[in-house]
Amino acid sequence: xxxxxxxxxxxxxxxxxxxxxxxxxxxxxxxxxxxxxxxxxxxxxxxxxxxxxxxxxxxxxxxxxxxxxxxxxxxxxxxxxxxxxxxxxxxxxxxxxxxxxxxxxxxxxxxxxxxxxxxxxxxxxxxxxxxxxxxxxxxxxxxxxxxxxxxxxxxxxxxxxxxxxxxxxxxxxxxxxxxxxxxxxxxxxxxxxxxxxxxxxxxxxxxxxxxxxxxxxxxxxxxxxxxxxxxxxxxxxxxxxxxxxxxxxxxxxxxxxxxxxxxxxxxxxxxxxxxxxxxxxxxxxxxxxxxxxxxxxxxxxxxxxxxxxxxxxxxxxxxxxxxxxxxxxxxxxxxxxxxxxxxxxxxxxxxxxxxxxxxxxxxxxxxxxxxxxxxxxxxxxxxxxxxxxxxxxxxxxxxxxxxxxxxxxxxxxxxxxxxxxxxxxxxxxxxxxxxxxxxxxxxxxxxxxxxxxxxxxxxxxxxxxxxxxxxxxxxxxxxxxxxxxxxxxxxxxxxxxxxxxxxxxxxxxxxxxxxxxxxxxxxxxxxxxxxxxxxxxxxxxxxxxxxxxxxxxxxxxxxxxxxxxxxxxxxxxxxxxxxxxxxxxxxxxxxxxxxxxxxxxxxxxxxxxxxxxxxx
Length: 616
Fold this sequence. Notes:
elongated; 30 strands; 5-stranded mixed β-sheet; alpha+beta
């Protein structure tokens, strides 16, 4: 019986990814972490750097008896300006946004029809209208760079794009009506018009961490039946600054031009001296009601529960304006009606075996929501991908559904962190960042695209295992009794035997460290000079590479020798010409002097003859 290929098997042999991997071997690649993959329905969109086009991969191709189209190439009428580092599909799938530091390009997706619902009935290559958002503004303002872009989740026309720039402005563009003029403009702090009129002032404010680096929309329940869109409250938007401060504002699409107040900084409990990290890089809002904010720094993650602020106004957390600089003093803010309760912090191990003497490996982190579960999200960085499961969200929903008179405690619910993809095993290994990450809902697969254009496919599950209890110390001989005395013995044993990917990772790290220490004991210790020599021999490469490099050096030497001989011949010719030019004037001067001497001698003789004639 012939085995039917699954989506995972088919994507591994996909033609477009095979072509991209061949192109990557010629040196085409990206040095930083990007987000170039996105999914809408049964289409996986990917931005191709080399072809400057978008590939729409048909995920139903494996179920169509291979009579459909594997992927379609969307050619752009106007290519984006600069390097693209993010691709976003609008919530209803009508448009694409290609985001780069130099601007944003919106691509109008064509109509779909036919048997498989492909674009323009399955044409392999088709042209799409693409236009730049605020092209004149970004062309005239070279110092303004795009920081973060998201589609508005409640846009009635699927056309509202929210753009955060480094000038501390949050702009909303209705790309269906006007691409050049924003419908909403919100100042988030010190701006160029106030203190950032020159590059020095902008650099100083950025060093203080008072420039917004990310934002996230607060999730909320769908509107009840019969409620008009204009009757709903404006959606809340959380804004993250580089110093870790979080602000709250709202966007009302029903009232273009309306400027709603900015609230914050939001108080955080418990208070911390370092403001929970001074190098914040991304923000994500997960869960429902109450929501959980995830603040990412290059080394840690912070999970904050969003709750209403107490009515008595007593708030001893972070959020006062005492720590603000003079650059934000000119910007009026209002107190936020919510508070953040930091439930836990998670340290990300970017490498599997970090060196003791080296500094910890850090990398900017991108946060990705999981479309299959509100309790999980993913982190992509230069060393791979982490998955974080939050049992706290399910516990909060269950706790919120209880009656008011319930006295059942919330309990402790630690997150579960799994290192799904590791592209940097040790600190000395080269970096291989993630170019894109997307999750296919059916079947539940994660697609990871690396800088080498290698595609990794990981099967995910919607069932999460609870975190394991802490293991006893090695010197403890006593056996701890189970925490729950009423738990059956077989269930207790089954729980003890369960292992998570994160626990397996820690065990692998411990085994690696033990093997490394044993190797250090058995292998003679090398000196610094021997280590340098071994490192240099390793960097030389294979014999074929050495021969190729030697041929290149020989060609360069021959070329330099030919150039030197040509230069010597030219110099000798120039010297002869200069000598000839210098000798010609001397001969003319000598001949002129001789002629003038003869004339003077003849004149003297004529004068002497005249004197003799006159008898003088």
